[in-house]
Design brief:
About 45% of the residues lie in helices and about 20% in strands. The chain has about 70 residues and is of the alpha+beta class. It has a single domain, classed as Defensin A-like. The chain is rod-shaped.
């Protein structure tokens, strides 16, 4: 009897692990994008991190004015 319970526990735990691996493999990284002006956003880096990016910075030609996020 305890052999059946041990085997069923093993099957359940294995299926949960396989399901977790399948779900995590389907994640797609966010594409780099600009989210707004640096005057509008208080902290560009924090805003990008909250949106799922790794970091953000103000970019621009003469004066860095646009907040862009990268992964």
């Amino acid at each position: 009897m305890s052999c059946k319970i041990g085997f069923m526990s093993f099957v359940v735990i294995t299926s949960i692990v396989i399901l977790f691996l399948l779900v995590s493999a389907g994640k797609v990284e966010a594409e780099p994008q600009c989210i707004g002006t640096c005057e509008m956003l208080f902290d560009c880096n924090t805003a990008c991190i909250k949106m799922g990016y790794l970091f953000g910075q103000c970019v621009g030609w003469k004066s860095p004015n646009i907040c862009c996020c990268n992964h």
